[in-house]
Amino acid sequence: MHFPANWKWVRYGRYVSIVRGGSPRPIKKYITESSDGINWIKIGDTDKGQKYITHVREKITKDGLSKTRLVHKGDFLLTNSMSFGQPYILAVDGAIHDGWLSITDYQSVFNRDFMYYLLSSPVIFNQFGQLASGSTVNNLNSDKVAGIMVPVPPLAEQERIVDMIEMLETQINDYTRQYEKIQLLDKELMPKLKESILHEIVSGNINRDATDEPFDSQINTPFEVPANWHWTTLSEIAEISLGKTPDSKNTRYWGGEFPWISISDMQNGRVLENTQKQITQAAIDEKMGAISPKGTLILSFKLSIGKVAILPTDMYHNEAIASIFITDSTVLKEWLYVILPEMVKYADVAGAVKGNTLNKKKLSNLLVPLPDIETQQKLVQIWLSALEYM
After folding, report:
1. Which of 52, 55, 152, 358 has the most crowded CB, counting CB atoms within 10 A?
2. Reduced to 3 states, what is the DSSP secondary structure of residue 333?
3. How far apart, in whole angstroms, are the C-alpha atoms of residue 312 and residue 269?
4. Phi first, then psi: what are they for 199, rounded to 5°?
C-alpha cells in the first residue's frame, strides 16, 4: 500500500499507550446505585456504529478500583474479544473490565477523530483479524494491538482528512434520509398509483376522445365508459373452468410430477413453474378434470380475490382458481389479464369463514367493459409500460 512521502508507516505502540481493563470479582459485590459510584463501562453500553460512549447503566464502588482500570473522557476504548476491534471515544469517565483495551497518550501524534476513522478502517481491522486468536473466541491483547502497522500523516493533513470524511458522511446521511423517504413514498403511493392508473384504463379515461359521450347502458354498471365501448359479462365472452383439490390425506395423490397451482403460487402476475405442490397420475385419473394448457388465463376468486396469471406451461389448479377460455374473437386475453383484478372489486363478494369469496355464478356475471380490439391493444400496452416504472 502506497502513501504520500510525508506520511510515516509505523508500529502503533510507538506513539500510544495501550492497557487492558480489569474486573473486580465477584462483580455483583461491587455494583452500586450510589450517586458517588464510579461508572462501570460495559460493551453493552454501546451501539453498533456509535462513535462515542456517552452513558453507562451501572456503577461500581470505590472498593473495586484496585481490581480495575480508570479511564477518562477523550480516551479510546477498543473491544478485545468476541466482536473485537471496535473503537469508541469516551465522553464519560469511568472504569473498564477486561473486555476492553484503553488507548491513551495519542494526542501529540494523532488527531482524535482521525484516529477513530483509522481504527475503524479496513486497513487496521484486517490486521486485527489476522492477529486475533483464542481457543474458543477470537481476541486481541495490548501487545498485538501495539504491533499493528499504521499510517501517520502530519497533523494538519489528518485534520483535512477528517474534514473530508465528515463532509462525505453528512452527504451520505442526507442521501440516506432522502432514499428512505423515497422508499416510504414508493411503498405507500405506488400501490395507489397502480390502482388509479388501472381504473383509468378500465374505465376508458386513458385514450378517451374528448368528444366521446358516456356509454348509455340499461344495466347497472359500476362506472361510465366511452360511448363506443360496451358492457358484457364474463360468461358471454369466455368459458370458466374451476380447478379441483385431490384428497389431501391420500398420499397416492401427492408428490408426483404434475404441477398443481394454489393461490400462493400466483405472485406478481405470474405463476411459479415450480409449484409448492405436485400431484400424481392417480390424482389426475381419479379426481382432476382436464388440464389447463399453456397460455391459459387464470384468476383467483376465493380468499385472495383478483390475482391473475397466464400459464407458462400445462398445469392443474385448485378450486379457488378459475381457468378462463375466451370464446369471443373480439376480446384479447391480455385485456382481461389487465382489467379483471380491477373488475372483481365491483363483484358481489360474500364473506366466508376464511375470507372473501366469489362463486362460479357471481364470477360468470362479472361485468366486463369492452372497447374495440385496437383500443384493447393500446390500453394493454399503456399498462405494461406503466408497470416498468412501478
Report:
1. 358
2. helix
3. 12
4. -65, -40
Look-up of cell digits 404441477: 259
* Same domain as 269, residue 132: no
Beta carbons within 8 Å of 227's beta carbon, 6+ residues apart? 212, 213, 214, 215, 216
- Are residue 78 and residue 161 in the same domain, yes or no? no
70 alpha-carbon distance from chain centroid: 43
256 three-class SS:
strand
Of residues 223, 228, 258, the one with CA closest to residue 243: 258
**pLDDT tier at 107 (50, 70, 90 boundaries)?**
very high
Number of helices followed by number of strands (H, E) in the chain: 9, 25
Region 191-209 average pLDDT: 62
- Contact (CB, 8 A) for 131 and 149: no
Is 127 found in the same domain as 161?
no
Q: In this structure, are 361 and 282 located in the same domain?
A: yes
Residue that the C-alpha cell 480495575 belongs to: 68
Residues 128 and 259 in one domain: no
Question: Given the DSSP bridges, would you call strands 52-53 and 87-90 parallel, antiparallel or unpaired?
Answer: parallel
Question: pLDDT tens for residues 255-267?
Answer: 999 999 999 999 9
Does 103 lie in the same domain as 16? yes
Residue 317 identity (one-letter amino acid): H
pTM of the model: 0.53
Query: Is residue 198 one of the residues assigned to a domain?
Result: no
Rounded distance, CA 31 to CA 99, Å? 17
**Structural domain that includes position 16:** 8-153
End-to-end, the C-alpha distance of the chain in Å comes to 45
